[in-house]
Known about the structure:
Radius of gyration: 18 Å
Helix content: under 10%
Largest sheet: 14 strands, antiparallel
Amino acid sequence: INLKAEFIELDWANNVVTAEVREDTVTGQMIGVPEFQDGDQTFTAKRMRYNFKTRKGMVYDVRTKQTDLFVHGSRMKFIQGEKKDTSKPENTLFGQKLLFTTCEADHPHFGVRSTKQKIIPDKLAIVGPSQIEIMGVPTPIWLPFGFFPLKKGRSTGLLFPRDYEYSES
């Protein structure tokens, strides 16, 4: 586990570490954005808490990347499991009001905004009721649920052409 931030508070009595972003007194800019890294998982957020004993954490105003999918949101719960049983995932993420997108910008131009999510890193993202959002404006297109595969490498399924609008055929 690696944690970098401008302000880090460690509570030994409760086994909790808290990291927050701070405002620079001279420029007024936010500095020292907390960055939490656990293996391949990396989160950047304005505020985060992690309990070493229970191996659970809360991340607020979160930004993370899951393979080719960027996740932006207000709150995410991180549960780090032990790989004793191969049928159970090692880490699990639960989120609220997250935006899934392939746009790399800080403020994404498009995406799928959903109310409830469960993410198993490098395997699958399962989302509840979702709405497609373009340029920050929700569209009337709703999805009752969704599954996003997060596997690296080759896979099977529907393949959509990337440049079909420029193709002459």
